[in-house]
Input
Amino acid sequence: MADTQIRFGILGCADIARKVSRAITLSPNTILYALGSRSIEKAKTYASVNNFPPSTKIYGSYEAVLDDPNVDAVYVPLPTSLHVEWAVLAAKKKKHVLLEKPVALNAREFDLIIEACDSNGVQLMDGTMWMHHPRTELMKQFLNDPNRFGQLKSVHSSFTFCAKPDFLKNNIRVKPDLDALGALGDAGWYCTRSILWAANYELPKTVTALRGPIFNESGVILACGSSLQWEDGKVATFHCSFLSNLTMDITAIGTGGTLHVNDFVIPFEENKAVFSSAFKSGFTELVTGWTPLPSEHIVPTDLPQEVQMVREFANLVKAIKESNSKPDTKWPSISRKTQLVLDAVKASIDKDFEPVEIVS
Output
C-alpha cells in the first residue's frame, strides 16, 4: 500500500481549490490527476496559473472527471447548493468524496450524500483542515486528561475576518442561491466543529441564537452568534463574522484546567502551531500574579495541515481499494453533527431567537 498513489480529480476552479490542489501535489500518496470546469479554457488557465503538474488531465465539464475510470477520488469545492447533486453523482460513479464545508444546506441534504456514499462503498470526508494538524491531537490529549483539565464546563469559539467590499458584493458565500448560510455556514462551521470537538462530539440539548445577527440585502448572514446548552450543565458560545478583524480563537475551560488557542483554523505559521494550557491556576500570595504560569506548547509539523488532511483521506481510500476495508464512518458522523448544530442555529434565528432542541 505504501507505493499506491490515489488519483484525485477536482470539480471546479474555486479559490480554495488552489490550496487543496497544492496539498494533493505535496502529499506523498496522491496525484493531482484531473481538473474539470464548465469551461475548458477556464480550467486550462486555472491549471497553468496554479502550477498544476503537466500530466493533469483538463476537462470541460464535471461529468468528464467523474467518467474518467482512472480517477479514484474527487475534491468538491463547489458552492454548497451544488453539493448534493455532485457529491451524490460522484458516489454513484464510485469516486471517493472529499467535500468542502459546509457539507450541505441542511442535514436532510447531507443525509442524501451519506446514503449515496454508504451504498456505493466510498469514503466521505469534509475539508475541515485544522482537524488534521498534529497540534489538534496534542490539545485533545490535554482536554481528555482528568488530572490536568478535569471535566469540561464551557467552550468559547470565534472565527471572524473583515471581508473586502468586493467579497461582500460578489463572493459566492454572500449569494442566497449559492451559499445561503453565509457566515454561519462558512466561519460558523469552524466554531461549531471546535465546540463539538472539545465536547467529544456530544451534541448539545438546545441551541439558542444570539440576538443581533447581521444580514446583507439578500438576507444572507454576514455575522451571528449562538449559545449551546448540554443537559449536564456544559455551555458554549460562538461568534462568526465577515465584518470583524481576523480572529480564530478557542477557549475551553474545565474544572482543573484551561486551553487557549488563537489560530485554530489556520495556524500563524505553516510549519508549526502553538497553544497554551493552564491547570491548577491560582494567585500569588499577594495576588500580584498567577501561579503556576500557563504553559506554551509549540507543535512542529513536517507537512501543512491541508496536506495531512489529504494524506489521511487517501490512506482511507487505499485501505478500501486494496484491503476491502469499509469506509470510515467517523468523519461523516462528525460532519453530520456539525451540520445539525448549524441547522439549529439557523432555526433559532428564524424563530426569533427561541431555544431549538437538537434531535439527531
